[in-house]
Structures are given as C-alpha cells and as structure tokens.
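User: Fold this, then the next.

Assistant: Folding the first:
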Amino acid sequence: MIAPVSGAARVVEYNLAVYRRVWRGSVLVSFISPLFFLAAMGVGLGDLVRKGSGSVEGVSYLRFLAPGLMAASAMQTALFETTYPIIGKVYWQRIYDAMLATPLTVRDLHIGEITWLAMRFTIVAALSFVVMTLFGVVTSGLALLAIPATVLTGLAFGVPVLAFSATQSNDAGFAPLQRFIVMPLFLLSGPFFPIEQLPGVFQAVAWVFPLAHGIALTRGVVLSTLGLGAATLHTAVLLAYVVAGTVAARQTLRRRLVV
C-alpha cells in the first residue's frame, strides 16, 4: 500500500508546479550572477588587491570573496521568496485560503513553505558551489559543507521574513526591509572585506544579524580556516534565528488565516 502524501508535501508540490514555469530563468540567474560577480570582482578587483596588499586574511581576494557571496546569495533569495510570494498567497491571491478549504492545515502550510525554502536555497547554494569550483576556489572535500551552511543562512533570514510577510496587507514594508536591512547587511556583513575593518559599533551590529555568521561559517569551511568552537557558535546563532522565525511564522500564519 502506498502511504498517503502529507499535507506539507502538497504545499511543496504546489510550489514545485509554479517553479516548473520559471526554473530555467531562475537557474540561469542563480548561475550567471555569481559567475559575473567573481569574474568582475574576484578576478578583476582581485588583481588590484594582489598588486596592493597581496592577499586578504592570507588568501587571494577571489578565494575570500567567493564563499561570502555564496552565503549572501541565500539572503537575497530569501527576500525574493518570502516577501511578494507570501503576501500574494495570504492576501492578494488567497492561495492559502483555497488550500485551507481542503484537508490541509495551517501547520501543513507552515512546514511546507519552510521545506520549499530549504529546497530553493539548496539549488542556489549548489549552483554557487559549481561556479566556485569553476574558478578554482574549492580545494578540499570539506568545502561541500558550504552548501548546508548556505542553506542554513538562507533559512535564518527567510523564515523570520516569512513571519513578517504573513502580517502584511500591502507591500509598503518590503522597501524599507530591502533598503535598511538587506542592503546594509549585504555590504557590511563581510562578503567583500573583513568585518574587523569596520568601526566597532558597526562590527557589533553586523554580528547581531545572521548573515555575518553565515558568511563566516561558509567561508571557514571553504577555506578550512574555521575551528570547531567558532563553527559551533555560528551554527548555533543561525539555528536560533531559524527556530525563532519558525515559531513566529506559525503564530502569524495562524493569526492571519484562522478566523
């Protein structure tokens, strides 16, 4: 006898059906974007760095930059997947209302969406890893751990944003989120230069948010420079964001969808 498909799997199945219509463009962008970044900055700007300081934290600028961009791409994907698509399902298109008219529950929607996010981050991380490999950044099998590290980084950012998006009735809150949180984090959390070069107050702010920990974890496993204690700390912070976001998302979805 074939076991029945769980409700959460049905939600994932719906997202896959939608993704089938756009996967070619999505995969292309996820591959081309790191390719161009590494070619322009890792190789181009990296050559200027080599002629100047010679290296960044003991490695070439290309090897320093690539894992940082890999983790940062998960944050960008998280913003794309958990803002407009979620508010559309909750408020504009009422997709969730239609799903709840079936035997599906809010718990199914909740788990299904987080599972789908993990799948999307895995795709993005795998493509970024392929690009890093093509540029010769990957030198050890340990670097494969960068894929789950990047997925965890994406979830640490995406699940809390999902909780936030479920409370919105319009997109007015998304522009400030992009302008005052995502963009500053992208620039100041360490993908392009060591956080230690920032003034102390900005270093403290950067370490409060998950991206800095995700970049440190991803870069550390790619370059084999991360000790067990630091890896445990970064992982714990990311997991704390995921857990807190998961609890919040469950509450906001239930509050919004259950009358």
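Now the next one, as you asked:
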Amino acid sequence: MTATLTKVKDKSKMEELLASSHMQALPKAGDLVVGKVLYVGKNEILIDLGGVATGVVRGLELVDESGELENLKVNDEVQATVLDQENEKGMVELSFRIAGHQKAWTNLKELKDKKEVVMVKVMEANRGGLIIKLGQIYGFLPVSQLSSDNYPRVEGGNKQRILDHLKSFVGKEIKAKVFDVSEEEEKLIVSEKEVESEKVVEKIKKYKVGDVVKCKITGIVDFGSFVELADGIEGLIHISELAWQRIDDPRLYVKIGQEVEAQIIGIESDRVSLSIKRLQNDPWQNIKDKYKIGDTIKGQVLKLNNYGAFVEIEPNIQALAHVSGIIKNKEERIEDVVKIGETYEFVIKEFIPHDHQMRLVLKDIEVAK
C-alpha cells in the first residue's frame, strides 16, 4: 500500500516537472521570438531559442522585407515568427518573411509620422509617375509629387515626351518622404516634393496675398504657366489668370524665359498662385454702362465649337453666341452660317458685367423671330 502511494506521488511530481519543463515553454505558431544565430547556410539558418529549442529558417521564409537581416553572422540576435512548433527534424519552424514584413511596414509608418527624409531607388516609370523601392518594399512616386526641378514641363503636354523624361530617373536614387502608407492595402506612396516643402514654406513666409512680384516663366502647360520667384520659389499662373480675355493656349500669350509682373492671389503651404490680369484694369468695368440688353452690336467671330461661337466685341471683351442663336434649324451647321475672322451684327440677350458674361444672338435670327 505504501509503495503504491509512493508511486502516485512520484507520478504527480513528474507531471509537475514536465509542466514546468522546456516542453511547456516551446513557442506557439504565430509567436514572435528572439534568438541567436547558430549557423548560416545558403538555404537555411539555425537559431538558438534561449536554450529551449533550436529554430530553423529556410526557403522563402529567409526573405526579409525590413532589410535588417542582410549579412547575418553567428551570434547575431534576430527576431522571427513561429510557423510550426516542431517540424520533421524536431526543430521549431521559423520565418523571417512574416516578421520582416510586419517590421518593414511598422518602420514605414514611423518614417511617415517622423517625416524623415529617405533615399528611394527608382525601378520603373509609367505615365503616372515612378515605381520606387524603399528597403525591400515597392512603392509609387506620382508625377504630382516630384520636386519642382524634376517635374516634367513638356511643351504641348506630349505624353511620350513626359514618359521619356520620367524614364531618365530609372536606376537613380532620389530623396523623398513617406507620403501615404497602408499595410492592409500594401500601399506605399512617397513624395519628393515634400522634401523641399519645409524650406519653401520658410521662404514663402516673407510674401503675402496681394504682393506684386517679378517672376520668370519657367514652364508652360495646358492649364497655365509655371513661374519662378526670388529665392527659387515656384508659383503657378492659371490660364484663367493670364488675361481678361479668353485664352485657349497659354503658349500664345507667354513664352519660357519671359520676365513678367504678377500679383500673388493665393498662398497654401508651399504653393503660390499668381495673376497677371489682376494688375490690369478689368475691361468689363469700362463697358458696364456702355451696353444694355437689346442693343445691336458688331462682333468678330474668334472661335467656333459645338455649342456656339466666341465673339470679340471690343479688345479683351468676348461674348458667347449660343448655337441656338446662330442657326435657324437642326439641318444647318454653325460653320455654314458664320466664319472665323468675319464680323457680324448681333443682339445682346444677356449682360452681366460683374460676372464677365454677355450672350448674343445673330441679328438675322432675332429679326426672323
């Protein structure tokens, strides 16, 4: 009887010992563990998990997106994620890939929060921007986030020339900041423009809305012209701010290298918006008492499109003659009734000088009614 009781007690002690042994302490799948490198081979790395067990990293699991585990040596301390508590060799199966992925995206979020400047390598280019690589993570640098020096100011907006310009960056490293990051979407957006933004913001502080400045035309695009102020600050004159009259092509109004005087009409962070036309008298104010609805006037047709004709009635004063005020029936074509460069008589149907609006109807059409 005593011997039996002794065996039971010994068995209980054995279970306690087993429960407190290293067998119980083995890490579980999904755990993040720390260990020291025991062996570095071409296709596998062995890791000592604090004397509890030996772990192995092999195959695709050797890939580390954080880029921190290159050139590992024996006794280096590393982190890895547990895939399997025990593999066919009795070792803990580990992954650098999963741990590195998590760490890489955590690092990217920290870079964004700290607004740190990093070097990114340009891998490819497309019409939207540059494919970049930061560490082991691929990302995108949109054209809109290029610095003022690298922005493609291509005459006529030729898409192939823009692409050729962007391709010139492939293989190069450029300074950038992490602009947007999402591990869930595996999205990384970087900005070169943000690097120069802080310096530009400081320089811009000496300007205010309303200031009249001298600047140089540095680029022309369909929507306006880029200009350079003192201290290398870049600004934009939108096409609608170049002149009081309608402008379809900025290239016919300004030229690259031309010195102009403009007024600052907007400052937003590192962006400056300017206007040339606001330094000139608004010609519409000069005619507000000169014309009224019902007047018959003469005007020269400047441009035709599907919805009507743009007509100049005075220098810098353009009015619209809607297609319904030019043709008598649907069978007629507007270009068969009026010709570009020719002068015709019109009747004013609508006149709102403070909104720069005047609507015309051909006199022949009005009389026919």
